[in-house]
Amino acid sequence: MATQILESPQAATKLKIIDADTHWTEPHDLWIKRAPKALLDRVPQVKMHEGQMSWVIDGNQSIGTGAHPNSAVLKEGGKVRKLDDFLKLRFPDVHLGSSDTEARLKVMDEAGIYAQIVYPNILGFGGQATARVDAALRLACVEMYNDAAAEMQAESGDRLLPMALLPWWDVKAAIKETERCADMGLRGININSDPHMHKQDDGSAIPDLGNVHWDPLWDLCVDKGLPVNFHIGASETAIDWMGQQGWPSLSYDLRCGISGAMIFFTNGKVVSNLIYSGMLDRNPKIQFVSVESGIGWVPFLKEALDYQLDEIAEGKSFDLRPSEYFSRNFNFCFWFERNDISAQLRRVGIDNCLFETDFPHPTSLYPIDNLEDRLSALSSEERAKVLSLNAARLYNIDI
Predict the structure, then answer these.
(1) CATH superfamily of this structure's domain 17-395
(2) pTM beyond cutoff 0.90
(3) Across all residues in the chain, what is the average pLDDT?
(4) Which of 67, 281, 371, 373 has minimal Cβ neighbours within 10 Å of its Cβ?
């Protein structure tokens, strides 16, 4: 696949860069403008709740206290870097590119970014916030989000590529929605990383993702060429923004800083369980993406899983060594890491790494600078892969 030139006088690079993780500040009317009359008061919306404007679902359940825009990029540019100031931001304070397609494309052009993969906020990075309401309402909310996502993708000329939310609580419904979203042109799915923490409608436990219960969904994803994305914080057990990791003696912002750093490692649990479950032997072509988790921990985990299998589970084996599944079935996103980054990328696998910015979240690369310079130790072919070609292949992006 040849790398083409992005026609932009402001571009800092000649590569058609693909940003593999950004977020959408959902417009306040995203659901209510699409809801049937019977659900109008129940779908996610912003209204006064317990004394402050908040995102609520089903009339009175908060899923976003304060109706925070989940953006740290200010309306006129620049980024808030103090937690207290960030938490005070409201929708009118932040950059229009956080939510508006035309404004987002302008930000991308200025940074020399051709396409962005887009993830949600309000319903959870894995859609887990829908678990608070009945199955019919949560399914309607997921479908409306995906309809809006397809509209955004079309409006952007296939440069903004939102990943589809799934009704993960019902595998048959998840398959049906995946088929619908593929027909609308969406290029990948999100899923709750810990569905087994919930129950099915009949009261039985939902199997974990290693169970054959999910194989029909994986078969469909392989058939449609849809990667399965695990964003950090994609389940109730994985998300911890606000301070469970830090010691009580630390200030609130420092505790959150520790939690924000530690959450990167939670995707290692998902990767490890998928490998040790044996599901990759049944589904050798499935492609998973570990999103917003960095790459520094990956070489260590590869070695650790091999070692632990030999030392603790003697006699257990899979078709491949645990470390070999990383290159066959997994892709990893990097953004802030700079120290020895070229060597790290090679240890993970050049063909398995994707660049991201996390725009417009607090940890995002904004402004984006010196993309190729920070990868100067890589060959031009390697840079093209990690900044563009790998993501183009994975998400079927025509560059």
Answers:
(1) Metal-dependent hydrolases (3.20.20.140)
(2) yes
(3) 92
(4) 373
